[in-house]
Design brief:
Mean pLDDT: 87
Strand content: 5-15%
Number of domains: 1
Strand order of the largest sheet: 1-2-5-6-7-8-9-10
Radius of gyration: 18 Å
CATH superfamily: Aldolase class I
Distance between the termini: 40 Å
CATH architecture: Alpha-Beta Barrel
CATH topology: TIM Barrel
Shape: globular
Number of helices: 11
Order of helices and strands: HEHHEEEHEHEHEHHEHEHEH
CATH class: Alpha Beta
Helix content: 25-40%
Length: 287
C-alpha cells in the first residue's frame, strides 16, 4: 500500500472516541464509520458525529473499494428493532442532524427502502425538528422503493456515484453509472423540493476531464450538493490507490463545481460523503 502524504495524517483516538464506540456497541447500532474503516472516525466520534448504517452490516454487492462485509443474500434478515435503537442513540447524543445510510440489500423486495422510512419515522418521534439526511443505494433503479423513502420526507436524499463512468466495471461491477445518476434526477422528479447530493472518490486512476465530466453529469441531473474526497484502500486486497490528489487540486475542483452550478461543494483529501454533512447543508442556506 502507498505511504500516506502528510495531509492525510490521522488523529489519535481519545476518551470520547472510545466512549461513543462502546455506547454504539452496547446499543447494537452500526455505523458506516466503523464498518467501512473511515479515516475520519476519530475526528467524528470525538465530536459526537456518526453516520448510522441500517439493514445490518453485510452487503449483497462486491464493490472493490469497500471494506463493508460481503455475504450471500440468503443469510440476511431485517431487524425490526434497528430503527428504534438508532432513535434512542440519537436522543442520547442530542443530535439535531442525522445521517442514515445502509448496506445494499438487493435480496429484499423493496431493496431496504421500508427500513429507511421506519428509521426516519422513529427519529422524528424523538424530535420532529431533527434534520435527516439519507444516503441510499440505487435500489436497482426501482422507483417505488425510492418513492417510499421520499414519502418519509428526509431533508437530503443522497446517492453516491463514487467514481467516473469508465471505472465502474472495476470498482462497482454490480452497479451502473447511468442508473446511479438517474436516482438523483428521479428523486427531483418525484419531489422537486428535495435536496439531492452525491460524492466522488478521487485517486482511483480517473483523469481531470473525467472528474469534470462526472460533475457535469450530476448537474445535468439536478444534483444540489457534491462532495469530493481522496480514496484510501482499506487493505491491499482492495482496489489500489493510483494517486494522492493534492489539496490544491481539490480546491480547484471545488471552484469548478461551484461554477457548474452546485449549490454547495465540499472538497478535500479527508472529505467523505457524510463528513460534516450538517456544515455542508448550512452552506446551501447562504448560497
Amino acid at each position: 500500500m502507498k505511504k500516506l502524504p502528510v495531509w492525510l495524517n490521522q488523529e489519535i483516538p481519545n476518551e470520547e472516541t472510545f466512549r461513543l464506540t462502546a455506547m454504539l456497541q452496547e446499543s447494537g447500532v452500526h455505523t458506516v464509520c466503523q464498518e467501512a474503516h473511515c479515516p475520519n472516525v476519530t475526528h467524528c466520534f470525538r465530536n459526537k458525529l456518526a453516520t448510522f448504517m441500517i439493514l445490518g452490516k453485510a452487503c449483497t454487492r462486491n464493490c472493490s473499494f469497500c471494506a463493508v462485509q460481503k455475504t450471500e443474500s440468503g443469510s440476511l434478515f431485517v431487524d425490526s428493532q434497528e430503527p428504534r435503537r438508532i432513535a434512542e442513540v440519537v436522543k442520547t447524543l442530542g443530535l439535531n442532524y442525522v445521517v442514515i445510510t445502509s448496506v445494499t440489500r438487493d435480496d429484499l423486495d423493496d431493496r431496504g427502502a421500508g427500513q429507511f422510512a421506519r428509521a426516519i419515522e422513529s427519529i422524528r418521534a424523538v424530535n420532529r425538528d431533527i434534520k435527516i439526511e439519507v444516503l441510499v443505494p440505487d435500489f436497482q433503479g426501482n422507483v417505488s422503493s425510492l418513492m417510499l423513502v421520499l414519502e418519509a420526507r428526509p431533508y437530503v436524499l443522497a446517492h453516491n456515484i463514487e467514481t467516473v463512468k469508465r471505472l465502474y466495471g472495476e470498482v462497482r461491477p454490480q452497479a451502473d453509472y447511468g442508473r446511479s445518476i438517474r436516482v438523483l434526477s428521479k428523486a427531483k422528479e418525484i419531489n422537486c423540493a428535495i435536496i439531492t447530493k452525491s460524492s466522488l472518490m478521487l485517486g482511483m486512476g480517473e483523469t481531470e476531464e473525467e472528474v469534470i465530466g462526472a460533475m457535469q453529469d450530476l448537474r445535468d441531473h439536478h444534483c444540489d450538493y457534491l462532495t469530493l474526497g481522496q480514496y484510501l484502500a482499506p487493505s491491499d486486497k482492495h482496489y489500489p490507490v493510483k494517486e494522492f490528489i493534492h489539496p490544491e487540486q481539490f480546491e480547484e475542483y471545488r471552484d469548478i463545481g461551484i461554477g457548474l452550478g452546485f449549490k454547495a461543494v465540499f472538497a478535500g483529501p479527508k472529505v467523505r460523503s457524510s463528513y460534516h454533512a450538517q456544515d455542508l447543508s448550512r452552506e446551501l442556506r447562504y448560497a
